[in-house]
Design goal:
CATH architecture: 3-Layer(aba) Sandwich
Strand order of the largest sheet: 6-7-8-3-9-10
Strand content: 25-35%
Number of strands: 10
CATH class: Alpha Beta
Radius of gyration: 17 Å
Helix content: 25-40%
CATH topology: Rossmann fold
CATH superfamily: P-loop containing nucleotide triphosphate hydrolases
Largest sheet: 6 strands, mixed
Number of domains: 1
Order of helices and strands: HEEEHEEHEHHHEHEEE
């Protein structure tokens, strides 16, 4: 496992709790999460809708804040950080990939990626990021000229182009058929392997878990299982 070779803890969460208040009603999303994530790992978060996966990912990525508990990124305490500090953290350290691509229709693939590199401290060339996800020949195509899988790979290239230490993916294959989804997962696999980026991938699809170093299963806001895969299955061999 990647963590065994380089056991640097990237994220450390202790007692992480999140309660959403809707008027008089309190809805617990996380109920005391303890978790360490390591540099270079590919981690899959599994669980049904409402289990807390997206809430956990959003807190790790600085998009949301916990109600209680602590979360650290390396030496930086994220719980209790100001909005300005969280914005800087997201900009400098985290790449996000969501189910929907959110590309700018009037920009080419290259220009969509360049929009991020222009505000990054250590960006890679947009062309290099697109090559990493297998789109080196599609640089000047607009989103409307790309398939759903190609658009998602542009979104991945955009996320990795700022050289983030962390790549957080929320159902990145949720809108894709299985064949196209495998191509997207191969792109994430390659980024994890070649850049050493801690990659955390949310899915409700248990088949995808076979490509992970570790699988973390959530239910009702709690971690109910953590297991390491003795053998990681290549994305192209996954079936679901």
């Amino acid at each position: 496992m990647a963590a065994a070779m380089n056991p640097t803890v990237v994220f450390s969460a202790r007692g992480l709790t999140k309660i959403y208040r809707m008027g008089e009603v309190e809805v617990p999303a996380l109920r005391g999460i303890d978790l360490d994530l390591y540099r270079g790992e590919l981690v899959v978060l599994l669980g049904p809708s409402g289990s807390g996966k997206s809430t956990l990912l959003n807190i790790l990525g600085g998009l949301d804040t916990p109600t209680d508990g602590e979360v650290w990124y390396l030496e930086q305490k994220l719980s209790g950080a100001s909005d300005r500090e969280l914005t800087r953290f997201r900009r400098e350290h985290v790449g996000f990939v969501f189910q929907f691509y959110n590309l700018i229709p009037s920009l080419t693939a290259r220009e969509n990626v360049a929009a991020v590199t222009e505000i990054s401290a250590r960006p890679m060339a947009p062309e290099e990021a697109l090559r990493l996800v297998g789109l080196g020949e599609r640089l000047d195509h607009f989103p409307a000229q790309l398939s759903g899988g190609e658009q998602q790979r542009v979104a991945i290239a955009r996320a990795i182009a700022k050289n983030p230490a962390v790549l957080l993916c929320d159902e990145p294959t949720g809108a894709l058929d299985s064949h196209t989804g495998v191509v997207v997962l191969e792109a994430l696999e390659r980024v994890n392997r070649e850049l050493g980026t801690l990659t955390v991938l949310i899915t409700h699809n248990a088949g995808i878990a076979e490509m992970a170093d570790r699988v973390i299963r959530l239910s009702d806001g709690r971690i109910v299982e953590v297991r390491a895969n003795a053998v990681k299955k290549p994305a192209r061999e996954l079936a679901w």
